[in-house]
Amino acid sequence: MLNIAVFGSGAGSNFRAILTAIQQGDIPDARISLVLSNNSGAGILGIARANALPAIHLSQKQFPDERSFAGTILSTLSEYGVNFIALAGYMKQVPGAVVAAYRNRIVNIHPALLPRFGGPGMYGTHVHEAVIASGEKVSGATVHYVDEEYDHGPIVLQRTVPVLPGDTPESLAARVLAAEHEVYPSAIRRIAEEERTSGHHTA
Q: Which terminus of the chain has fewer Cβ atoms in its 10 Å neighbourhood, N or C?
């Protein structure tokens, strides 16, 4: 069973897609145990509370240094029995100590087909602007494992969408977001199924 913590900074639409898939029984071996945001006003926290899920605001600004911040994240994850982390629009780099503690247990979604159009500064509208400027005919969404480098870890699953003549960053973003909402629950279902069939038991 994946006991998932979802980290997010914004509206939480990918979190909602994952939560809906779990609620509908599409991901039978997973549950969301915690939602964490660096932004106290984030929509993702509101969605969590509306679904009676623990919703916690934790920001680096509340702590004197990254070490104490990371320690509090880790103790909070432990308190809620979290064994897997899904980043859903989390606009901060996850502290290295957390990445190390959850090695191969953290995934992220990126609004392009990695390894292209990833890395520092490649987020939100910047990604879609770069894709259009490059003349690419295809874009999409990538779910990948998280390591110490931005947008770098092994790819779990990708979904492609066409880049259409006359696309703006906004129109392409809307098409990619729809793909994200399909591919992220599918990727988590695949990981959960692999755990079950491999007999790898996570508490």
A: C
Q: Please tell me the predicted confidence (pLDDT) of residue 201.
A: 53
Look up residue 102 and give its two tokens.
């959850």
CA 128 to chain centre: 18
Q: Report if residue 96 sits inside a domain.
A: yes
pTM of the model: 0.95
Q: What CATH number is given to the structural domain containing 142?
A: 3.40.50.170
The pLDDT tens digits for 143-190 are: 999 998 889 999 999 999 999 999 999 999 999 999 999 999 999 999
Residues with catalytic function? 110
Q: Is 41 helix (H, G, I), strand (E, B) or coil?
A: coil
Q: Is 176 part of a structural domain of the chain?
A: yes
In sequence order, the 6+-apart residues with CB closer than 8 A to the CB of 126 are none
DSSP 125-191: HHHHHHHHHHT-SEEEEEEEE--SSTT-SPEEEEEEEEPPTT--HHHHHHHHHHHHHHHHHHHHHHH
143: its two tokens: 């779910």
**C-alpha 114, offset from chain centre:** 15
For residue 197, what are its two tokens?
A: 């069939």
In a domain, 41, yes or no: yes
The total number of residues shown for the chain amounts to: 203
Query: Does residue 191 form part of some domain?
Result: yes
Task: Give me the phi and psi of 101, to 5 degrees please.
Answer: -70, -30
